[in-house]
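Running this now, will post back.
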Amino acid sequence: METMTAERPGSSLRPHVKAFKSTAIASVLEENGHSSFCCATIREIEGMIEAGHKSDLLLANETLDASRLGSLVESGARVTVAVDSEATVKVAAEAGIKEVLIDVNVGLPRCGCSLSEVEDLATLAKRHRLGIRGVMGYEGHLMFTADKQERSMEVNKAMEILSQAHSIVGGDVISAGGTGTFDINKFATEIQAGSYLFMDTRYAQIELPFRECLSVVSNVISIEHDRKWAVTNAGVKAIGMDYGKPKVEGSIVALCSDEHSTLFPPEGNEKTALEIGDVVMMKPSHVDPTIAKHPRILCMDGEYIIDEWPIDLRDW
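Update: finished.
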């Protein structure tokens, strides 16, 4: 956290709540000078408002639920919504939303309007009396580009698209980026990053100054007769695996099923050294969906639990 805050102090970082889904962690971030937050779901924004984090919340995702958006407006919180189509503009206006960001596609095959649509969309938003704070564009397709020079070059290309959009739309906010481009993206006024807090094995493959510190606690529940493998009680229902299997120090994770993971001994060893009952710390490949599967995070200093953070922003 200190490393990111030093690089991106205050409002130049908009922490992404989807990564940690905890108002307790949001409070820690706020204590470190970050009072604007990025959310992926309406539930995240609702929970942040309930916990008193109201000063600047961005729903960085398109939604067609005018009723729930309207309830956010009634709370008195400052809520900005990303829009990328006529439909999302009209829903935001119907809900009483006051401010929007024009979401522009900068290369990731996901949400965002094309550059050719930006002017018409901005005109429509103004016609519906929506204030345009600026633009948003997520270069997510570049987060894991291994070569930093190549990553930097491609980010600049993506941000050129967003720059052109901003020249059309105007506004004070240029929202982009993530953990993988936090120190490369020099164009954005704010970076939407969240994984940096805990990291995962996927992000660990590129050069970043953050430490992996999230593990899922499991236990060995079975040992094969000839000790060829051990089985833990944590599988795909406990660990996000869209980026690959988790890693375990001193073992090879061979396969994972709903409630189990099978661990082979490391190369050069024929038998596992694990015993039934052993605690096994499993490092996930993707922090966001892993955290969303659990009710709490235990903060540990060595073998001691020093704090507990409820994961209270799950669901949609």
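The CA atoms of residues 19 and 288 lie 4 Å apart. More later if anyone needs it.
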